[in-house]
Amino acid sequence: MLAAHQKVLGMLSGEQHITTGLVCSVRPEINDADSALGVFLNTLPLPVQLHGGTWADLILQAFDAECELLKFRFYPLAQIQHDHKGQALFDAVFHYVHFHNVSDLAQSRQFEALEWVDHIQPNFELEIAFQLDVKLSQIRLLVSGNGRRLDEKQIYAASDYLMDILAQIAQSPRERYDYRSFLTGAEQQKLLGDWNATEAAYPKD
């Protein structure tokens, strides 16, 4: 899922070197810490180079980068931004959500989940979250944005790209990810045709 997210960012930016924010759990690693109430999250910049290869290569690359980053998950994002003189480090974030405590509670005969509602105000241009539904035991894709640069249509398009990429990974993990464009025919025409139609008539004198 993280690899698919990185591929989408590469498509949207047109860059090989991309950085996304990775939301990490920073819950204290002590006994009974899972019972503590509060938001134990931190978001860290995760850079990656999309030099090409198979989908399996990209997945392993994403996994290795995440494992390396987790060593520093307790270093606050605010301090990282201060270290970089306040500059923005990323415009998109990735988050995998599994509320395992809620899952245990949902299996109790003393508890019944009637509805699950998420209402989180987006802070970044593009926010991708994969959430394990505690009621249906299915993974849901949540795509949102703050609306400053990407409009609603573009955010929906990012969601479609993610679904197409995930299907491609499942079907052909040994195919090269850099040889496949997931743009629609209309989008490719706009990119390769309309935006490159720069011919103009000049006076011959």
Helix tally equals 6
Which range does the strand content fall in? 15-25%
| H/E element order | HEEHHEHEEHH
Give the N-to-C terminal Cα separation.
59 Å
Strand order of the largest sheet: 2-1-3-4-5
Mean pLDDT metric = 82
Proportion of residues in helical segments: 25-40%
Let me know the number of strands. 5
Report the uncertain regions: none
What would you report as the Rg, rounded to the nearest angstrom? 20 Å
How would you describe the shape?
globular
For the sheet with most strands, the description reads:
5 strands, mixed
* Content-based structural category: alpha/beta
Brief write-up:
The chain has 205 residues and is α/β, with parallel strands linked by helices.
